[in-house]
Amino acid sequence: MNENKVNQSSQKPSFWQMVASTLLSFLGVSKESRRQRDFEHGNPKVFIVTGFIITLLFIMTVLIAVKLVLAN
């Protein structure tokens, strides 16, 4: 079973795995093995772009919620 974990952590993460890692980082939750995989084999451009998109979506959501509350 440990050999399977080693094989998974040494593989290049897929696009969706990198997006999921970025989402989990916003929550502050991640496994050490996932973090190591991302730093060793991940594409930094995907993490940066995904981080900007998630940040913009978060800001837009907060602004919409504030406008809805203040409108009433």
Write the layout of secondary structure elements.
Blueprint: H1 2-10, H2 15-27, H3 32-41, H4 44-71
Descriptive overview:
This protein is an all-alpha fold. It has one domain. Helix content is 83%, strand content 0%. It is built from four helices and no strands. It has helices at 2-10, 15-27, 32-41, 44-71. α2 (15-27) crosses α4 (44-71). The longest helix is centred in the C-terminal third of the chain and has 28 residues, at 44-71. The model has no long low-confidence stretch (mean pLDDT 85).
Number of helices in the DSSP assignment: 4
- State the end-to-end CA separation: 56 Å
Strand portion: under 5%
Write the element-wise H/E pattern from the N-terminal end onward. Answer: HHHH
User: What is the makeup of the main sheet?
Assistant: none
* Unreliable spans: none
Estimated structural class: mainly alpha
| Overall number of domains | 1
Mean pLDDT: 85
- State the helicity in percent bands: over 70%
Q: What gyration radius follows from the Cα positions, in whole Å? A: 16 Å
